[in-house]
Fold this protein.
Amino acid sequence: MPIEIIVPRLGWSMEEGAFVAWLKEDGEFVRAGEALFSIEGDKAVQEIESIDSGILRIAVTCPKPGDVVRVGDVLGHLVSAGDAALGTLPSDSSELPSGLASPASLTSPVVANLHSPVRTLAKNPSNPPSVPAISPRALRVAAELGVDWTTLTGTGRSGRIRERDIRAVVDSGRVLQPALHKKSNPTGEKTVVLVTGGCGFIGTWVVRELLGRSQSVVVLDAGERPARWERVIGTASAKVPLVRGSLLDRKLLGRVFEEHHVSNVIHLAALLTPACQADPWEGGRVNVLGSLALLEEARLRGAGLRGFSYASSVAVFGDEPDSVAAAAGVENGPPTFYGAFKKAVELLAAQYWRHFKVASIGVRPQVAYGPEREAGLTAGPSLAARAAARGEAFCLSYTGPAGYDYVEDVARAFVRGALETPPGAHVVDLPGEVADVDEVLAAIDAAAPGAASLISASGPSIPAHTPAKSRFISALYPDWKSTSLAEGMRRTVTFYRPAKPAGNPP
């Protein structure tokens, strides 16, 4: 027999609320636990889950979005396929989708699942005829992912946009809302970019990229002003303010924002894998709590903070999944403390968008290489290129395939992420170029002919940390172009070649 769908009591004092929308279509099969409709109580809009299964039949007298409803009002029914066949439904009833068995018995009343999560959603006002209808769930997902839903035609009843339509747009790469994509500064206020960890390898190239775009920069780092600044940036580096200190010094962090009028953030400061493995406590303090302090400062700045990008890593993924796991889209967890800390920061950034609308972009480089890369296991290709330029011997300490991102691409990703931050908490992968170590050596030899006799590789295969399904940065920036491995190695070798004496022919 048909089972009533009634308005639940969302709180002990609730007697009435406002109907928001159905989250399922009339005639659609609903499974127990799926969100059925949404209703606004005293404090928030809540999605109500079905605790039974059946075919949804919406009552003819069902309220419209915004109408007041009372606890216990009947909104519709869930019925079995057998009920539909016996004519207990209106004549326009739908059968179960093919391949789905009808429930054997539907006897319990369908009411609110009072343990379902409360989500604060923006009300969906009545739209003019030119704007499509959208479900509250789809509206929330569109806001989180930065999708311009106003131009879409949904797959729901009468073209209503559903969550699946929003996610289809994301998969197609049409993500950004042009009006909200911060390519420019409409207020005309000065842009000042804070770079944490700006004394490091990638940080140095980020500062160079920002200065090349005529942006004002301030660096917060625990280290001294590095000599590489002069080599990579040139004399302009002398004008970059360097504040020495820790992100965990909340008073110092606040002063940096206030005194330098910080408008955008690029967060690179972190302890690397060896340090995190040797001292997980300190690694967690610096990498997780330091990032949390920066996100909290961004929250306190509100609209004054115009963009935020941060360094994540492919270390958030486990070893390469086997064929069965890969086919199912299952990813192994981080194999190191460093990877776990980076994953924690991704999750924190998502929470700061969900609750405080702090937009951010996390960038996951693979093996970053290029001039001035000197530390770490994967510094080998950069050091080999330097050795080849100088005519010296060098042996990489690993073998096997990996993805390679040229450092100028990595720097550009962080800078675009901070200056062109779309709504949402995004995490993107850099496409780079996947190559075996032998191909890396060949690229170096092509850039420095004769280097093949000087450079080699020996050691274990490099761990493969790749997502089961990548989301590349081109999903946010469709014009993104990557530097090829051959070109990146050519630039690296050229950087290290000894300068020719003045007066010598080229």
Notes: The mean pLDDT is 80. The CA atoms of residues 284 and 341 lie 6 Å apart. The longest helix spans residues 280-301. The chain is about 30% helix and 20% strand.
